[in-house]
Prior knowledge:
This protein has helices at residues 19-25, 50-59, 77-89, 93-101, 112-120, 139-143, 148-153, 160-163, 223-229; strands at residues 27-34, 39-47, 67-75, 110-111, 123-125, 133-136, 176-181, 184-196, 214-220, 233-236, 239-240, 248-251. By secondary structure, it is an alpha+beta fold. The protein folds into two domains: 19-120, no CATH class; 123-251, no CATH class. Strand 7 (176-181) and strand 8 (184-196) form a beta hairpin. Helix 1 (19-25) crosses helix 5 (112-120). The relative contact order is 0.17.
Amino acid sequence: MKRNEMTKIKQNNIKFFSQKTIKAIKYYVYALVNPKTENIFYIGKGSKNRCFKSWKEQNQKKDFIPRIDIIRYGLSEEDALEIEAAVIDSIGVKNIDNEVRGHKIEKSRIVASDLNLQLGGEKLNVEEIKDNVILFFPHKALARGENLYDSTRQYWAVSKGKISKKTDSGDLFYKYVFGMKNEYVLDVYEIIEWFPAGTTISSRTFNDDGKTRWEFIGKNISQKIEKLYKNKRLYERGSPLITPQRGIRYLEI
């Protein structure tokens, strides 16, 4: 594969909540947000997958892809109506944040896809992982709203020895990469090849800090691997996996 070729990767944009999440959230109040400005432009209340229906309707009207934020969940329908009215009466995102976060912060505003992982993600102990994988934690890039695939594959100060290591059959020793957010596996990619940082086409801008950094080109995984690892919550010794300081962790079987 040439360096200027980038495999099309499925994005982690959920289209519905899992049944486990639906049962847990009951009624909820949600916001549709312009991710470029962080401005809320639509407030609603609903149950089950109502927020995704609104997202689809609004997405057709906008020149950007809206984000769904869940402002409050686990509500009765009556409470959801009251909170929806209160939010609509508010005068901005900061006021909404202050109002919501003042009470029961564990059910405060959260990105819909994160909530689905938090409530619907299955636990997986790292000791149960049956493949050699590299875990990348691109928290800063994701916080800036950057593409999940590009944020996961770039720009890492990884060990050249580790990423070039091969099995006896000539395959890469570390075959898969997990794109992580805290202990959650947002997506999984199969590595095709590694390149020096900033040498492949990307949605991101590479700022050279003088360190030797690398990036990979990846492809979508098989359904078998996806079922094993994607959207799981990783645990180690009975506790949620801790994010390493460098944002990189190697797991060997």
